[in-house]
Amino acid sequence: MAQVADELAFYRFMQVISGLATEQTDFTGIAKRAGITVNKAKEWVSVLVSSGLVFLLPPYSSNMLKRVVKTPKLYFMDTGLLCYLRGIDDAEALERISDSGDFFENHVVSEVYKSFANIGKRPPLYYYRDANNRKEIDLIIEQNGIICPIEIKESSNPGRSAAKHFDALAPAGMRIGEGSVICCCDDVYPIRDGVWAVPHQCI
Questions:
Q1: What is d(CA 163, CA 158) in angstroms, rounded to the nearest whole number?
Q2: pTM attached to this predicted model
Q3: Which residues lie closer than 8 Å to 70 by C-beta, 6 or more apart?
Q4: Are strands 175-176 and 146-152 parallel, antiparallel or unpaired?
């Protein structure tokens, strides 16, 4: 699709973006690390999106939420491909790396994305981060005028602090549904009013 003339350059580009999974998409940074032009980085990311290998998660914004970031975050559709590009070939190695939480977040977001795509619906998914980078919510589902915040934690017992930024979505007029913290717990349990810990197996 991209008519790649230099396969080694393309593979290097793939390795670069694998290291940026779950992060905001910075095409200038991608181009610099991969040794290609910014336009080429945009073109190749577009090809990966069109071919279903990656997807871009847009930021949530509304007239009632001011000063939010406007850059999408990049996720791989297949965490197996993500591990391959990062040189990880077994579960023990994945557990040892310092950013294993990013792999867990990619897994959860991609599975939620596919749950909508597989039934022919456009995934109504977003993330939230304020312009000061002080408050962030990993995932937001918006359906029928209701937004449901989701935090993703590689923990077996997340507490109330895991949902501490959910209140950022509560300006007047916005309908907030029940929130979730998707994690490594064994059973669903309440974290606070309207927020539940949910095992990642449930997605």
A1: 9
A2: 0.90
A3: 59, 61
A4: parallel
Amino acid at the residue 113: Y
Q: What angle do CA 78, 82, 87 make, to 5 degrees?
A: 145
Q: Which helix (H) or strand (E) holds 79?
A: helix 79-85
Decide if 76 contacts 54 (C-beta within 8 A).
yes
pLDDT tens figures, 101-160: 899 999 999 999 999 999 999 999 999 988 776 789 999 999 988 999 999 999 889 988
**What secondary structure letter does DSSP report for 166?**
G
Indicate the burial class of 152 (C-beta count within 10 angstroms; 0-12, 13-18, 19 or more): buried
> Token pair for residue 121?
């619906």
- 45-72 per-position pLDDT tens digit: 999 999 999 999 999 877 656 666 789 9
AA identity, residue 202: C
Residue 179 structure tokens: 């929130």
Buried b (16+ CB within 10 A) or exposed e, 119-151: eeeeeebbbbbbeeeebebbbbbeeeeebbbbb
Q: Which of 169, 175, 173, 176 is closest to 66 using CA atoms?
A: 169
Show the beta-strand stretches assigned E in the chain: 54-57, 73-76, 125-129, 136-143, 146-152, 175-176, 179-183, 189-192, 195-199
